[in-house]
Specification:
Two copies of one chain form a homodimer. With 324 residues, chain A is α+β, with helices and mostly antiparallel strands. Chain A has ten helices and twelve strands. The longest helix of chain A has 18 residues. Chains A and B meet through helix 1, strand 1, strand 2, helix 2 and strand 3 of A and helix 1, strand 1, strand 2, helix 2 and strand 3 of B.
Chain lengths: 324, 324
């Protein structure tokens, strides 16, 4: 079985929603964009053993590599549309594994309404390496960036924080203490299957001044907004949205708060908006929580973490995953 | 030194030609497309030890990973415009190697007038794995595909064939017999530094009925045109454009003709056009050679190879690189 068979059997069926994908049989795909719209492009590379566990289920790996890219599009306020997949497969290739991966991809792309339009299928003597490049659309000039936060803005985050970081600890058996089966399953799923905020992202156009998705951890990603916007931020720790599972873990081991603040992989949206728009934000269908405020630039203390008593808490050192 | 330093130091400067790249500091890039134009997207993944040699110079590896993608855009008749690079670097990362790679990328993108607009920078415990996704533009409905060849069409190829395949044999020391230093250098360069036919591709709009770039070898890539167009083809071997270096190798070892016919990596364009357009094709600035004709579909003999005496030559078995 050659690469063309694999493409024809497992991946070409995922391209049928987009005529410009040419059934994955040509050199490239062709995309039309309506006048007054812009294309938004992002690319994320996931390596086995680095971004996912080598024995994670193939279906969840597929969901993750697509989800993290759609999360980037959502953070720009873009409507997701299509993606390419370049996969370097360890040899000898395990076709039943590929079939499960493709089934996971099909399920995910159906949920998220995007279509495969191209890519590459090659062999590697290293770990499985998956690069998705995803395409979305926004109205001309309407893309959200990290650079628009203004002093006085509120700071918001969607969903809940720290689930994925504790999910990774759950899978690796590093969480001491009792964890109910339900909580363990919930945290594991949050690590393996990020839910890109594809509805929230586009709905923040005209509301948010800046946005980013939390892939590297709250402190690191807030740092990106601060750097690009030239502002500072104060986060009220008591207001962080935490799931029941995370609350129960923290009750046993409060030291894990640092993991909540710096752990990556949640893929929630972090954004800023003027206080005048609070009711617009409450009316959104995706749950969001106001967790702090944006201030004037402050090179000494760009991020202040405050506890429920109004006291400053040290910002954890390890502020997000660094590859090198 | 972390991934963000590497991006800021070595790759962000390559993005300055496109405002929508946002200096590689955001989640995604934003591209505008003029009304009446379509975007063309391709993605190729190159793995060290598979697509290039582990000790190839970093500058030529950079040139190759960009060039093979722009070649795909050219084969669609598209004007190249921008690209993303997702790189999985072996750890510990060698910054001086990365610097040379980035310098090669800068030189190549200047030659080919494209701009880096995004990507990803991650670590791997496997081989260097580089995925470029490239973006081009065509007029609405004007993209060339593999599917339009018609019986009666002439078959053309640009440049010369077999150089890259013999270049690989030259580097690996498998070419027996004398090879002048000039010829060895020429063949090696053709393997390491493909020249995407970025001028020829767009100029074939309105001329070619079908096109493909030769990455997998003449026989395999002609096979793709035949399959997608539902036709057959006859190739006159005596008319294949061969460089002086290839001719000199063939004089010593005529068995290598099979390598010329099936060897990949030339990245020349193979295309078909009606005989009425011969003078238009002669007038193009890129040298092309008429090497055969397209016939009615023939499931038994889809490709006929003919020698100078009009006798049929067996089609070599190994018709292009297969990964699995």
């Amino acid at each position: 079985m050659g690469e063309f068979d694999i493409i024809a059997r497992h991946f070409a069926p995922l391209s049928h929603g987009e005529a410009g994908a040419l059934g994955l049989t040509d050199d490239a795909a062709v995309l039309s964009i309506d006048s007054g719209r812009q294309m938004v492009v992002t690319s994320d590379c996931l390596v086995a053993g680095v971004h996912f566990l080598k024995n994670d289920p193939p279906e969840t790996i597929a969901r993750k590599v697509l989800g993290v890219n759609l999360s980037d599009l959502a953070a720009m306020g873009a409507q997701s549309r299509a993606y390419t997949l370049a996969a370097a497969w360890p040899t000898p290739i395990d076709e039943s594994w590929v079939a499960k991966f493709a089934a996971g991809l099909k399920s995910a792309q159906t949920d998220w309404q995007v279509t495969l339009i191209g890519g590459d299928t090659v062999a590697t003597d290293g770990p499985l390496t998956l690069t998705v490049t995803a395409f979305g659309e926004v109205g001309e000039g309407a893309a959200l960036t990290r650079a628009g936060a203004k002093p006085g803005d509120d700071l918001y985050v969607s969903g809940s924080l720290g689930d994925a970081a504790l999910g990774l600890l759950t899978i690796s058996g590093e969480l001491s203490g009792a964890l109910t089966d339900d909580h363990a399953a919930y945290l594991t799923d949050r690590y393996r299957c990020p839910q890109p905020r594809i509805t929230l992202g586009p709905s923040l156009q005209g509301i948010a001044n800046s946005a980013i998705d939390i892939s590297d951890g709250l402190v690191a990603d807030l740092g990106h907004i601060i750097d690009e916007s030239g502002v500072s931020a104060t986060v009220e720790i008591a207001n962080l949205p935490l799931s029941a599972a995370v609350r129960s873990v923290l009750e046993e081991n409060s030291d894990l708060l640092a993991t909540i603040l710096t752990g990556g992989d949640d893929y929630e949206l972090l954004f800023t908006a003027p206080p005048a728009l609070r009711s617009d934000i409450s009316a959104l269908s995706t749950p969001t929580t106001r967790i702090g405020t944006i201030g004037e630039p402050d090179s000494e203390t760009p991020i202040t973490l405050m506890d429920a008593d109004g006291n400053t808490v040290p910002t954890p050192q390890h502020s997000g995953y660094q590859h090198f």
